[in-house]
Amino acid sequence: MKYRFCLLVAVGVLPGCGTPTPDTSQQHTPTNTVPSEVLALNWYAEAEHGGYVAAKELGYYDEAGIDVTVQPGGPGAPTLVIQELAAGRIRFAVSNADLVVLSRARGANIVAVTAPLQQSPRCIMVHKSSGIETLQQLTNVELAISDTRPFALWMKKQLPLTNVTMVPYAGLVGEFLQKQNFAQQGYVFSEPFIAKEKGGDPKVLMLSDIGFNPYASLLVTTEDTIRDHPDLVSKMVAASVRGWHSYLDDPLPVNQRIHANNNDMTPEALAFGAEAMRPLCASTESVPLCGMELTRWQSLVEQIEQLGEIEVGAVKPADCFSTSFLPVESSEKNKAAATSTAQ
């Protein structure tokens, strides 16, 4: 869904998203003792950012002693937030695991420190009337997609895609509603709801069904920030995880806040998004909320190597993430589960 959401009226979006870039040069050295940080979102604020918005709106960042500005993105933001991090203009952003791997291969020392979405929400939306039931059956359609992203390249590698014409993805559902032989990328809790709300007949095909399942909505930072400001990272992670717990337990207060700032984000759309996202965030005995596993990163790196997007061995999976900043109770849960498994 292409909506703009501003938590602070004075805050702009990232360069290239339509408004001037905010001056972040002084945000690392405020005049008071409370650190001031920008958390740059990789899209307009939606359900997949709910925990971070909750941490801001419910005061968890403030309680941790951090003055956080949640900065919405838009088209181009997934790449731009990584560029801002790599340049040192911001210290925290939201991204997806595949972009972390690609960024590290290109020399940016990006590190994921929380992973609220354990399962990828990435999907392809087709018309029910098309009769297409699986991604393997995706044929004879115009497909709006970011065709250079790893998930699209994985589709090209794994699927026949007979008579499928790929066109640029604009972030809207208008063409889907107008064209019968049309499909598009999306998030399972976003575009399908909007299309149905507008009278469409969407059917969702999950990219995870063909084995591409990177963590999503990651809180990311840099090796430099981890080295120079470990206490800041720890506080940011703890408050963010607390926000995700709150949002998943009761999204209504935060959804109301989002809706109050942007009427285009209807309460129904927000409620649907939160509910559809909940199972994608589910923890396990070995992985708590926002946790990560090395095996998942190893699989992702291998897939991107197979696609030829990075050289073999260029990215070490263990360098892509850190769970050492997760709250103590999460770390203890991981250790206990690992011990139980070993026995």
Radius of gyration: 20 Å
Q: Examine the coordinates and then state which fold CATH places here, giving the name of the CATH topology of the largest domain.
A: D-Maltodextrin-Binding Protein, domain 2
CATH H-level superfamily title of the largest domain:
Periplasmic binding protein-like II
The level 1 CATH classification of the largest domain is Alpha Beta
The H-and-E topology, N to C, reads as EHHEHEHEEEHEHEHEEHHHHHH
- Termini gap: 47 Å
**Major sheet summary line:** 5 strands, mixed
Strand content: 5-15%
Number of DSSP helical runs: 13
Arithmetic mean pLDDT: 87
What is the count of structural domains? Answer: 2
Number of strands: 10
The name of the CATH architecture of the largest domain is 3-Layer(aba) Sandwich
How does the helix and strand content classify structurally?
Answer: alpha/beta
Shape: globular
Outline the fold blueprint.
Elements lengths: L35 E5 L9 H8 L2 H4 L3 E5 L5 H11 L4 E4 L1 H9 L4 E5 L7 E6 L14 E3 L5 H9 L6 E3 L6 H5 L3 E6 L3 H7 L4 E5 L11 E5 H6 L1 H20 L2 H10 L5 H11 L16 H13 L21 H15 L1
Parallel strand pairs: 1-2, 1-3, 6-7, 6-8
Antiparallel strand pairs: 3-10, 4-10, 5-8, 5-9
Helix pairs in contact: 1-9, 1-10, 4-12
List its salient traits.
alpha/beta, D-Maltodextrin-Binding Protein, domain 2, five-stranded mixed beta sheet, 10 strands, disordered N terminus, disordered C terminus
Overview of the structural elements:
The chain has 343 residues and is of the alpha/beta class. The protein folds into two domains: 36-118 and 214-342, D-Maltodextrin-Binding Protein, domain 2 (3-Layer(aba) Sandwich); 122-210, Periplasmic binding protein-like II (D-Maltodextrin-Binding Protein, domain 2, 3-Layer(aba) Sandwich). 37% of the residues lie in helices and 14% in strands. It contains 13 helices and ten strands. It has helices at 50-57, 60-63, 77-87, 97-105, 150-158, 174-178, 191-197, 223-228, 230-249, 252-261, 267-277, 294-306, 328-342; strands spanning 36-40, 67-71, 92-95, 110-114, 122-127, 142-144, 165-167, 182-187, 202-206, 218-222. A five-stranded mixed sheet has the order 2-1-3-10-4, sandwiched between helices. Helix 1 (50-57) packs across helix 9, helix 1 crosses helix 10 and helix 4 packs across helix 12 (294-306).
